[in-house]
Amino acid sequence: VLSGGLISGAPGSGTGVSGTLNVSSGGTATFFTTFNGGTTNVAGVVHNDTVSSGGIENILSGGVLTGTVTAGNGSGDYGTINISSGGMVGHVAIYSGGVLNDAGTVLSSVFVSNGGIENVLSGGLDIGTTVSSGGQEIVFAGGVTSNTTILSGGTATISGAATIDLNGGAGEAGSVTFVGSGGMLEIDGITMPGTVISGVVTGDTIDLTGVNFSSVTGVTLAAGNVLQIATTNSGTLDLQLDPSQTFTQTFTSAGDGSTGTDIELSPNLLVAGGQTSSGLVIGPGDTLTILSGG
Fold first, then answer.
1. What pTM did the predictor assign?
2. Cβ neighbours of 96 (radius 10 Å)
3. Which tens digits make up the pLDDT trace of 157-181?
4. What CA–CA distances, in Å, run from 153 to 93, 173, 271, 273?
5. Beta-ladder partners of 127
């Protein structure tokens, strides 16, 4: 499909690609399916299409894939969508078996449902994705998300020096897992999510973007690994950390460089009275303190 060209099917028409379709810059394709074994390369505009299991859609620099996710009128992914740097995608549902690899930009309204996976790669930016039950979002080092919503049963992974930004609020649920060190979890607003946060280690940061650092009076790890942030303006804010994780360090707070508050795990190890710890690794710059009876 060359510049100025248009191909269009109709919803449910069976129009599809089993070989290779190239949509050049300035070209448009709509209402079709990339079938198993088919490949669609997009440097123009594609909307309201479906990628079947085994199908591949490559969104190249300057290419756009979009749809309006309503019954019979949305872009759906059961296969693989690859977004290159400079490519843009919005209004896509990733269903069971579907994979979206984002090294470009996801603009809005991407839904990752049961069995679907979204990978935000280095250089990738994802804005406004919703991860529902059984869906997965994995953000790799150098990848960033903004205004992410994780519903009950949804999972998100921060791999290395990646950033996930949650909308915050009581509607957030599911789980976020840090893998490796250097990750950033940003939580917007002053209503903390019900999301379970796992894998926090030294070097990871939880940035409470809506909580002014000057209002924070203390950070305490309470029973059940509930992280409590005491504030003068908003009372005590609770974050649920993985109840099965063992912490031998304290949590600290600091300004995030703007108006928010960074929560981090201190590199200083503490063995309290009556506590027995084994297998501790004391790294360069770390401090181990053993109190009486410990």
1. 0.89
2. 13
3. 999 999 999 988 878 999 999 999 9
4. 17, 7, 35, 38
5. 146
